[in-house]
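Q: How would the structure tokens look for this protein?
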Amino acid sequence: MALISVDCRAAAPAAETFRVLTDLVNLPEAIPEILSITLLTDGPIGVGTRYTEERKMFGKSTEETFEVTAFEPPIDDGPGLFTVEADSCGMHMVAVHRVTPENDGSRIALEMTAEALPSAWMARIVSPIAGLLTGPSMRKMAKRDLERLAAAAEQV
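A: Here is the predicted structure in token form.
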């Protein structure tokens, strides 16, 4: 199981930071590497929402379909939780975002895991290189995404 853990501070309240993070339709405005997001389900964003994200990653265009598996907005300036999961290339990926109040702003933390799916034939091929998902390039990309989310939340 690969793990990336990054965080950054936003000079914006937790509720606003969470709103920007979960505004999937407008996420490409905050993170230029996200080329587009297509919602696959109707209604407001929440548990069960499915969407396809097209992103430029390491110089190539990739497309993944995600499902929201946790959606807990901050209440009374408490913490918020937003989790998405995807199965791709024989791997099950989970991205857990936590938004917590911090002094006069908030902190966004991201933990990403990737685990080989035992029944997938790709798992045998991908499993030995799963550790690359924790490499410096992936960590740098995740950190940059959080910093851009923070900057977008601060603009409001």
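Residues 2-154 form a domain with the Alpha-D-Glucose-1,6-Bisphosphate; Chain A, domain 4 fold (CATH 3.30.530.20).

The longest strand covers residues 60-72.

Upvote if useful.
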